[in-house]
Write a structure and sequence with these properties.
Helices cover 31% and strands 28% of the residues. With 209 residues, the protein is α/β, with parallel strands linked by helices. It has a single domain, classed as Vaccinia Virus protein VP39 (Rossmann fold, 3-Layer(aba) Sandwich), CATH 3.40.50. The strands form two sheets. The protein has a seven-stranded mixed β-sheet. A two-stranded antiparallel sheet has the order 1-2. A hairpin with a 2-residue loop joins strand 8 and strand 9.
């Protein structure tokens, strides 16, 4: 596929047949760049994204009839699962190559009325009933902005579904969100423990982390 930045391989995840960048080619291109390019994190299906997609597949009522926005989506697996149930869906990333692959899979799966948009969450973001995020809290320089984003979304009556790997840097970010009402669930995907959070309000009325 000459119009794509990498060759594609087929992978079946959450009952969906997807085209994803060839992991071996991605690694080869990155290593040959000799540090001249950042690693294309968007090009992988990470365990957190798979966990969030599995959760939405099991409980589609979380997004059914709602406007949904996925931030930092990469290949957008959770959104691809949510698309048949959402009233309106927007998949976003700040890397343009990611949008190319999102669009490829949307067309292959026959999913319509879904918008792919280039969005940097450090700027303003569109309003939505539900915001999806997976494995976004790995850079401490993002934490203040993400905390503000969570606060704004919940204070306006929205929901946030967040999947994070159980690692020290993620725990640092989660500790910043203790004021928000939530539920959580721990699952294992590809040998990685993933914490799934459903944030449903700004008041401290539920158990703390």
């Amino acid at each position: 596929m000459s119009d794509l930045p990498f060759d594609s391989v087929t992978r079946i995840v959450c009952g969906l047949t997807l085209q994803i960048p060839d992991p071996q080619q991605v690694e080869h291109v990155y290593r040959n760049a000799g540090g001249r390019m950042p690693f294309p994190y968007w090009s992988r299906l990470w365990p957190s994204g798979i966990a969030l997609a599995q959760w939405l597949r099991a409980e589609p009522e979380r997004v059914e009839g709602k406007s949904v926005l996925e931030l930092g989506a990469g290949l957008g697996l959770p959104s691809l699962v949510a698309a048949p149930y959402a009233k309106h869906l927007m998949i976003s990333d700040h890397i343009s190559e990611a949008l190319t692959w999102m669009d490829l899979n949307l067309r292959a799966l026959g999913l319509q009325d879904v918008e792919c948009r280039l969005i940097n969450w450090h700027h303003s973001i569109p309003q939505a009933d539900v915001i999806l995020m997976s494995d976004v809290c790995y850079d401490p320089s993002d934490f203040d902005r993400l905390q503000d984003l969570v606060s704004t979304q919940l204070k306006t009556g929205g929901f946030i579904f967040l999947a994070v790997p159980e690692r020290s840097i993620s725990v640092m970010f989660i500790e910043m969100l203790q004021e928000f009402n939530h539920t959580k669930e721990v699952v294992a995907v590809e040998g990685v423990r993933i914490i799934l959070f459903a944030f449903t309000g700004a008041q401290i009325v539920g158990p703390k982390f």
